[in-house]
Structure formats: C-alpha cells, structure tokens
Write a sequence for this structure.
C-alpha cells in the first residue's frame, strides 16, 4: 500500500506528469528535461528524484550525464500502466505538446553540463 501511495503522490504534480510525458518519447538527462520543460536545474532534478524514488524511472550513467528513462521493468507492475495512462491523458494538451516540440531540439550540453546534469 505504501508503494502505491508514493506513486500517486509522485503523480500529483504537473511538472512530474510533464516529465513522464517526455520520457515516454526518449531518455533524457537533467539538462534535456530543463530545456524541454523550460524549468530550472533544481526543479528538474528534484522532480526526477521524486519519480525515481517512486519507482517510475531508472537511471544510468553515460559519461558525465545521468540519463533517466521509464522503468518498464519496475517491481511494481502497475507503474508502466500508469505511465501509459498519463501519456494518453496528455495527448492534445497544449503545454505537453509544447514540451514535446522543445524536446526535439533539447540536447546534452558539453562538459559544462557536468555540474547540472551529473547529479
């Protein structure tokens, strides 16, 4: 029950829903999330951490970057289904569509990004 509660608390924030929506499309580091959602590094990192702690995301190292993606092999089998529902629910949402357009040009910033994206 505690894990389910944590998952729903993680989903109760617009920024986290928007992050899941872009991660459905592709994996991203913090700086790519920042660019796609037009938010600060601290806000992106904090919300990625909440989603990671709730079991929605997995992370891996890619050089200086920590890259986040949807954890489709989550221990809690309902999590991928919730992510799918979010993606469907945000189809046609103006702000979510703008995020997806910005995601197309978002990129990992060079070595100067290590401080912002290496967290």
């Amino acid at each position: 029950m505690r894990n389910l509660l944590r998952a729903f608390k993680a989903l109760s924030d617009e920024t986290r829903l928007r992050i899941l929506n872009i991660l459905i499309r592709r994996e991203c580091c913090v700086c790519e999330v920042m660019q796609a959602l037009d938010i600060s590094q601290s806000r992106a990192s904090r919300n990625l951490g909440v989603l990671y702690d709730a079991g929605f995301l997995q992370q891996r190292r890619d050089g200086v970057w920590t890259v986040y993606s949807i954890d489709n092999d989550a221990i809690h089998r309902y999590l991928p289904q919730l992510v799918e529902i979010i993606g469907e629910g945000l189809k046609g949402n103006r702000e979510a569509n703008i995020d997806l357009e910005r995601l197309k040009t978002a990129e990992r910033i060079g070595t100067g990004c290590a401080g912002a994206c290496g967290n």
